[in-house]
Amino acid sequence: MDRIAAMTAFVRVVEAGTFTKAADTLNLPNATVTRLIQSLEEELRVRLLHRTTRRVTVTPEGATYYERVVRLLAELSDIESSASQSMAKPSGKVKVETAPNLAAMVLVPALHEFYREYPDVDIEMGSSNKHADLVGEGIDCVIRAGAVNEQLMVARRIGSLFFTTCATPEFIKRHGAPQRPEDLMDLPTVGLITASSGGRATPFRFNDGNTELTISPPHKLLVNDTNTYVAAGVAGLGVVRLPSYAAVAAVRSGALVPVLREWDQGVMPVHVLYAPNRFLSAKVRVFIDWVAALFEQHEQLRRT
User: Fold this and answer.
1) Per-residue confidence at 189, pLDDT binned at 50, 70, 90?
2) Would you state the pLDDT for residue 268?
3) At what angle do helices 244-253 and 226-234 cross, to 10 degrees?
4) What confidence tens digit (pLDDT) does each residue in 79-136 have?
5) How many CB atoms lie within 10 A of CB 172?
6) How confident is the model at residue 190 (pLDDT cuts 50, 70, 90)?
7) Distance of CA 45 to the CA centre of its chain
8) Element (H, E) at 96
9) Amino acid 78: pLDDT
10) Which domains does the chain have, with CATH numbers?
11) How far apart (Å, rounded) are the C-alpha atoms in residues 110 and 143?
C-alpha cells in the first residue's frame, strides 16, 4: 500500500463527503479510492469512516487521524514544493468564488493592478451567493463574509463589512425617516436572501455600541442578488440595509440617504477560505495576499 496515497485519499473523502467526489478530485477510479481506504483501515486496525449509500461520516478515531494527517501532508507538500516554488514565477489559473457585489465593485475594478504585477496568472472568478464546494468544484479559494462554518477549511481574516441603512430622498419625504430600528416594521423594506439564510431574508442586525437588535421586517420585495438589492434601494422600493462599500457611490451621488446611522457600529468579518491539506502554490498565495492588501486599503473593508 502507498501510505501517502492512502492518506491523501482519506483526507479527500472526509472533505468531499463521498467516495465519488473524492475520486473525481483525485482523478482516480472510485474503486481505487475505496481500496486505498480499506487498506489504510486494515493497516491501522481501526474504522476511520462510516459508510452509507448517500454519505460518508467520520468516526471519532477518524476525526483524530484526519487532523494529524492533514498537518503531515501539508508539511510534506511544503517540503517537496519549497525548492521549486521559492524561485518560481507565479503562473497559471486561480479559481476563486465570491459574492457578486464584491466581485463587481471591489475585485474586478482593481484586477488590472494584480495583472500588472503578475501577468502570467489568470483568474477564473465565480460570483454567486451560494456556498461553494471547494473540493468538489476544484476551487482554490473563496472570499466570504460572515461566520465560517466549514471546520475543515483554513479561514484567513482579511477584512470587515460595515453596514448602513439607506433610502431614497423621495422615499423619506413620502414615508418619513425611521428613528429606531423597530420603525422598519411599519415601513416598506427590501430583503436579501443569501446562501446562509436558508431561503429566507437575512435579518437586519443593528448595533449602537451598547445594544444589539435583530429586526425581520415584512419585506415589500425579496431578492437573492446583491446588485439587484442595491438597484431596488436606488429605485425607491423600500429601505435597504447593505454593506457600506456597496452604498458609497449611491450615497455620494445623493441617490440614497443614510438613516439610523447611530446603529451602524456592528461589523461582519470577511475571510478567504481554502483547503488545509493543499500547499498554497505561488499563484494562489500571491492572489490571496493581494486581496488582503486590497481590503486593507479600502476604507469600508479594512479589518477592525
Assistant:
1) very high
2) 87
3) 30
4) 666 555 555 688 899 999 998 888 998 999 999 999 999 999 999 999 876 777 777 7
5) 16
6) very high
7) 38
8) strand 92-98
9) 65
10) 3-86 (1.10.10.10), 88-154+278-297 (3.40.190.10), 161-267 (3.40.190.10)
11) 15
Tell me what pLDDT residue 196 has. 66
Cell numbers standing for residue 2 = 502507498
DSSP 104: I
The pairing of strands 92-98 and 121-127 is parallel
Cell triple for 3: 501510505
Report the alpha-carbon distance of residue 195 to residue 129 in Å, rounded: 6
Residue 50's φ and ψ, nearest 5 degrees, are: -100, 130
**CA 52 – CA 13 distance, rounded (Å):** 13
- How far from 104 is each of 101, 108, 184, 190, 226, CA to CA, in Å? 5, 6, 29, 21, 10
Determine contact, residues 203/215, Cβ cutoff 8 Å.
yes
Confidence tier at 299 by pLDDT (50, 70, 90): confident
Please provide the distance, in angstroms rounded to a whole number, between the alpha carbons at the two ends of the chain: 49
Of 68, 71, 12, the residue nearest 37 (C-alpha): 12
Sign of the alpha-carbon dihedral angle for 63, 154, 2, 56: positive
Helices of type H across 118-186? 134-137, 169-175
H/E element holding 143? strand 141-145
Beta partners for 240?
166
Q: Which residue has the cell 483526507?
A: 11
* pLDDT number for residue 37: 92
Q: What CA–CA distance (Å, rounded) separates 272 from 286?
A: 13
